[in-house]
């Protein structure tokens, strides 16, 4: 998705020497022991949907394909234990059949739980549950790259250096994640004539008696390429909400009161998945795919200025700048999309965005940027030779913060 990364890391520039697919968690420990003994780099890989180049094997070596570790168990406590390669789609299906809702999943729902924990952050469920570092993970079984050939169970605060650190501190082979009792989720499409009307409702959605699972909004520029199951007015602002069924009448009332129109209410659970598949990075990705003639870039940003002063946000880059919004617990997040000129021009907008109070996460670099100091300190013992996913840890990124979910 990043024209900057397309220039720096074009497909085929960095390749692994071998792809290895372990069948058991013990296989992973054994592979790492051999790799350690022979100084062979190992880059873990789930479904390969990560979009910052995090899974690029910069030093060749082994690409560790974890998709065969796909066991899923619903525990008596209601948590779910899954192999690193289990897909969120499968985990959710198994969980719902047992009366449970997974706390969080990304818009790339076919991705793996190991890849989501190691490379992802937010998604459907974030309004209530925040990010993958906010209690989503109960425990993880991790294989270190220290020659021990062991597997270790990590819980509580000790999990922090293993979440969103791209596998540089160890390979996650299994994870236990939190769920809620299953709810009856409904997909609601609404539309509004203007941006202020759209966000006036967007910001009130956390007042519903049950928090929505997702609330995405788009400017008209992003609407025609959405993969909606209903016809959307290409001139209108789109609001799409995964709402608990009992809250839908109140939501419809909010929309009507706010000068909008409810376009459709879909009660089939698969329709809520369709809404998830049009959230976070996806609307930008759809736009890029539909306009190969225009090179577009995006930035991941967050802050109430998105609701209060969108023109100030748009003014941070020249030309046409469009916003796709998501709802967090206390503020909105957004994907800003604009025409690409150069890597330097993209970078120069970061200070302008921070100056108006936005949190900014750049999707144009591959360094670990969540808790990098902790990752460096942990990797000193779990990967003393620096063989795990080389090139992703740098002390100089320690100052960069992630998009805030506050
Ligand atoms: C269009 C689009 C939409 C997206 N939407 C979202 C979204 O809503 N929310 C979100 O958080 N992300 C999103 N992403 C990013 C990405 O798709 C998700 O984070 C996804 O969950 C990554 O899982 P994966 O299995 O594809 O991992 P991969 O891409 O294979 O790997 C991701 C990272 O984790 C490492 N890794 C993989 N497996 C393991 C393991 N078992 N142990 C240790 N390290 C491992 C890899 O080396 C890599 O650094 C999006 C990306 C795109 C392109």
TrEMBL record:
In what residue span(s) does the FAD-binding PCMH-type domain sit?
12-182
Q: What is the lineage of its organism?
A: Bacteria, Bacillati, Actinomycetota, Actinomycetes, Cryptosporangiales
Top-level taxon in the UniProt lineage: Bacteria
Q: Which GO molecular function, any one, fits this protein according to its record? A: FAD binding
Question: Which SUPFAM superfamilies does this chain map to?
Answer: FAD-binding/transporter-associated domain-like (SSF56176)
Provide the protein name: FAD-binding oxidoreductase
Name the InterPro entries on file: FAD-bd_PCMH (IPR016166), FAD-bd_PCMH-like_sf (IPR036318), FAD-bd_PCMH_sub2 (IPR016169), Oxid_FAD_bind_N (IPR006094)
A Pfam match is: FAD_binding_4
Q: Which organism is it from?
A: Cryptosporangium phraense
Q: Which PROSITE patterns match?
A: FAD_PCMH
* Single biological process term from Gene Ontology: lactate catabolic process
């Amino acid at each position: 998705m990043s024209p900057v990364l397309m220039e720096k890391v074009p497909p085929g520039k960095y390749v692994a020497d071998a792809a290895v697919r372990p069948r058991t968690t013990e296989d992973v420990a054994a592979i790492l022991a051999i790799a350690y003994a022979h100084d062979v780099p190992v880059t873990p890989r789930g479904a390969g949907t990560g979009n910052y180049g995090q899974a690029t094997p910069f030093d060749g070596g082994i690409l560790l394909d974890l998709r065969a570790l796909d066991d899923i168990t619903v525990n008596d406590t209601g948590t779910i234990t899954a192999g690193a390669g289990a897909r969120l789609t499968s985990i959710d299906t198994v969980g719902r059949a047992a009366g449970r809702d997974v706390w969080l999943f990304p818009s790339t729902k076919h991705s793996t739980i190991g890849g989501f924990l190691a490379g992802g952050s937010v998604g459907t469920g974030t309004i209530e549950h925040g990010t993958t570092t906010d209690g989503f993970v109960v425990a993880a079984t991790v294989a270190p790259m220290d020659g021990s050939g062991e597997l270790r169970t990590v819980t509580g605060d000790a999990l922090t250096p293993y979440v969103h650190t791209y596998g540089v501190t160890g390979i996650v082979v299994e994870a236990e994640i939190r769920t809620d009792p299953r709810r009856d989720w409904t997909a609601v499409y609404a539309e509004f004539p203007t941006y202020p009307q759209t966000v006036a409702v967007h910001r009130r959605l956390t007042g519903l008696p049950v928090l929505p699972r997702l609330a995405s909004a788009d400017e008209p520029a992003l609407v025609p390429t959405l993969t909606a199951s209903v016809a959307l007015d290409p001139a209108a602002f789109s609001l799409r909400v995964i709402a608990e069924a009992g809250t839908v009448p109140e939501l419809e009332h909010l929309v009507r009161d706010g000068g909008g129109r409810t376009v459709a209410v879909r009660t089939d659970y698969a329709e809520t998945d369709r809404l998830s598949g049009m959230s976070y990075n996806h609307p930008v990705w759809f736009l890029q795919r539909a306009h190969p003639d225009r090179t577009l870039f995006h930035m991941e940003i967050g802050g109430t200025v998105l609701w209060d002063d969108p023109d100030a946000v748009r003014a941070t880059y020249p030309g046409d700048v469009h916003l796709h919004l998501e709802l967090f617990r206390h503020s909105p997040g957004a994907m800003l999309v604009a025409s690409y000129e150069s890597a330097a021009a993209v970078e120069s907008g970061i200070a302008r965005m921070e100056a108006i109070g936005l949190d900014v996460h750049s999707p144009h670099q591959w360094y670990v940027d969540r808790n990098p100091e902790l990752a460096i300190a942990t990797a000193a013992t779990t990967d003393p030779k620096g063989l795990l996913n080389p090139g992703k840890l740098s002390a100089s990124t320690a100052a960069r913060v992630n998009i805030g979910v506050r």
